[in-house]
Amino acid sequence: MKRRKLLKSLSLAPLAGGLLGGMLPLESCVSAPSKAPAGTKVDYFKELGVTKVINASATMTFLSGSLMRPEVMEAINSTAHDFANMHELQDKIGAKMAEMLHCEAAMVTSGAACALVLGTAASITGMDSKKRKQLPNLPGPRPEVIMQKSHRYVFDQAVTTTGAKIVEVEGPQEMEQAINENTVMALFFNAAVNWFGIKDSVNHEEFVAICKRNNVPSFIDAAADVPPVENLFKYQKIGFDLVTFSGGKMIMGPQSAGLLYGRKDLIEAAKLNHSPYEAPIGRPMKVNKEEMFGMYAALKSYLERDHEKEWQDWLDRIERIRTIVGTVPSVIGETHVSPGPANALPSLHLWWDLNKVKIQPKDVNAALKEGTPSIVAGVGKKGDKQVLNIGVALLRADQVDVVADRVKEILQSATA
């Protein structure tokens, strides 16, 4: 083609493209460039230089939570090719999850931390659109949220994000006296005893009873508190108005998803404070449609799972690792079950005679992390002894022997 004709054809290209765009399917006009041959999988870990980690610890956010199950990935992938009205999707998924959880209403949030923001916001605003737009800068006295002093934790910043003020109490009497016209909610951190080793000054039943007497919404943060599966139902039976669990821990949904469920009026108010509404405080905490479908599939799968069989599988993994590592002189392994309620999972405690195996558990832990593959385990205490803690619940089946062999290798190399 001569240069003049080429330039003429190019000048007509935008018009032709506009016409074609209105007449032909998009895929007929645009071809996606691909460097990899058809059927070739790209290793994005390798491409980006990101280290793959074997999680022999627990469902920690910095380790990307848990691994999504195949049925969750199927839900995500199968819904990625169509649009949906997000209001309808949240309503329909929430209704189905409420049926599964035997509660009035439910919704998908962007993790349990988002649920804390939305639950607090709902308790402040109710259905008042003016208040929703004013958060976190409501005029007048700050809304107050009651918490036990021993329950203060890093995540309660999610509460104050709404503009609320946290009021600390100790004991039922002090809690009752702290309630006033500015009190909008009371928050119970379920894993406080687990985290801090301090007994609750107000137990679950007392907490709920005080809230109900004073018409104050009660909210329990139980983010990491399954298993057992019964915990999904336990706290609403006690009478908590709002409950949150993380979706990306042992429910094994998307890490960026969570559950908020309970009283219908509060859930409806929470939705109004969330995306896809354009102005509210929860707008930056949106959940995409694929994560919503994935969270629904994860909850459905979790409730249908054979939990006794799953627990036995974890115990079998412990026995397998103990058998392999136990061939090193003086090494002793013992099954340990965390008392919970957070991360109440079985793990393997290992210790040894330091005169025979000349390496400390903390140094074994460091060597596991720095090795290839990188294995993240933990260090704990048994009496006055330091122990190596190997979590098994988050290992893939093919990783059990990898972990066992690597621990054995490190211990053998330190054997006198």
From TrEMBL:
Question: What InterPro entries is this protein classified in?
Answer: PyrdxlP-dep_Trfase, PyrdxlP-dep_Trfase_major, SelA-like
Q: Which residues form the signal peptide?
A: 1-21
Gene Ontology molecular-function annotations: L-seryl-tRNA(Sec) selenium transferase activity; transaminase activity
Q: Tell me where in this chain the PTM N6-(pyridoxal phosphate)lysine is found.
A: 249
Descriptive protein name: Aminotransferase class V-fold PLP-dependent enzyme
**Is the keyword Aminoacyl-tRNA synthetase assigned to this protein?**
no
SUPFAM superfamilies on file = PLP-dependent transferases (SSF53383)
User: Which cofactors does this gene product need?
Assistant: pyridoxal 5'-phosphate
